[in-house]
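Ops channel
N.P.: pipeline sanity check, posting one input/output pair.
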């Protein structure tokens, strides 16, 4: 069967619509599984289900353990690979974990209200994950293998910054020609062409404890120094376009009658450009390098840094191709810039052209009202399948 037939939007849409009831059934099943980022068993239940589906579609599947920085098993990365007859290696990726605590699936079960499905993780990212599997089904139904290789990657720890899967994501991204991220589309239907990067600044302040009434002069207040640090970091907020510095955590002392000997300040930096993030980190180091409170000491650690998904010429070409594929489907493809981070940041930083937001339309992520627009499911599956076929056939530039 020709590429033209395989990627025909109307045929892909018809197949996706015929499978809509199956999609909703599978979505209900996945949402019923608690799979918070620290629930390795739950994450792996979702991953095992998806791995079985991939094997049934002819993929070679491997499962790689993912550990956090302390050595805790977070679950397994599922990697499915299938060779085709095309010219390019396409990576499609989503995540298995949610932000919700154990018991949420039972307390707030999957339900459908009108055209919306609701439940924990229904949009972020179980709807997107499932859309990827159904896009493969749609291509298979039309005899489609117009890709050099299709690589499907499902991670267990995206919601906590991918500490256990980032290295594997980078390795796989370096092998691929293009990548499509299955985070759901924005509420207005936009895809995602750029995301801010993020870094956490952990400032530890050490002082000297003393009785605040009997001998306060023997103390060195870490709390007072922490207050200075908070103000110094806050002054860096919005010093560059689109860059934010949020002081989110401040802890100090143990009792009001004890001069505080320890304090912690944690600030989050977000920026659209890696250079902006790096420069504000250096500015933070300079501003707090010399304590303003006698007898105190400061240490700044940069943690959980994730580079931005920056808009590039390749991004523009991917959006243009998505617009071409989406037009017959009635989708006016546009791409937004968002402050949230996803695994797409990691993949793009490895040098692989990446387009995000290719799941169905959803919203209110991470909240009790999280929803997925079921009327968008079939068109977005057809868009994704058409993109895979077009990109897999060979370079678009």
């Amino acid at each position: 069967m020709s590429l033209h037939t395989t990627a025909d939007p109307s045929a892909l849409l018809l197949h996706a619509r015929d499978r809509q009831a199956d999609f909703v059934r599978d979505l209900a099943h996945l949402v019923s599984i608690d799979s918070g980022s620290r629930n390795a068993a739950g994450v792996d239940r979702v991953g095992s289900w998806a791995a079985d589906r991939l094997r049934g579609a002819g993929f070679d599947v491997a499962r790689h353990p993912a550990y956090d920085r302390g050595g805790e098993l977070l679950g397994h990365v599922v990697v499915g690979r299938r060779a085709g007859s095309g010219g390019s290696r396409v990576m499609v990726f989503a995540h298995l974990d949610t932000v919700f605590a154990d018991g949420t699936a039972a307390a707030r079960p999957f339900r459908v209200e009108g055209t919306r499905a609701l439940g924990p993780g229904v949009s972020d990212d179980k709807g997107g994950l499932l859309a990827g599997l159904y896009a493969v089904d749609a291509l298979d139904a039309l005899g489609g293998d117009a890709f050099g290789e299709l690589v499907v990657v499902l991670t267990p720890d995206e919601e906590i910054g991918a500490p256990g899967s980032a290295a594997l994501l980078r390795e796989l991204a370096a092998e691929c020609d293009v990548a499509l991220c299955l985070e759901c589309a924005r509420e207005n239907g936009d895809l995602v062409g750029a995301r801010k990067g993020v870094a956490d600044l952990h400032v530890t302040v050490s002082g000297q404890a003393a009785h605040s009434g009997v001998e306060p002069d023997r103390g060195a207040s870490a709390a007072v120094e922490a207050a200075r640090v908070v103000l110094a970091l806050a002054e860096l907020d919005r010093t560059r376009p689109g860059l934010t510095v949020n002081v989110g955590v401040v802890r100090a002392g143990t009792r009001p009658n004890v001069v505080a000997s320890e304090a912690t300040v944690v600030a989050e930096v977000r920026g659209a450009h890696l250079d902006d993030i790096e420069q504000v980190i250096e500015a933070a180091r300079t501003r707090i390098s010399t304590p303003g409170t006698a007898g105190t000491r400061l240490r700044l650690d940069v943690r959980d840094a994730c580079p931005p998904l920056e808009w590039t010429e390749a991004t523009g070409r991917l959006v243009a191709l998505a617009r071409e594929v989406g037009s017959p489907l009635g989708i006016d493809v546009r791409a937004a810039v968002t402050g949230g981070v996803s695994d797409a940041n990691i993949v793009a930083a490895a040098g692989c052209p990446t387009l995000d937001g290719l799941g169905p339309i959803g919203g209110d992520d991470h909240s009790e009202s999280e929803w997925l627009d079921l009327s968008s499911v079939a068109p977005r599956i057809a868009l994704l399948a058409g993109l895979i076929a077009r990109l897999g056939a060979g370079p678009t530039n």
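N.P.: looks fine end to end. The domain at 197-306 is CATH 3.30.70.360 (Alpha-Beta Plaits).
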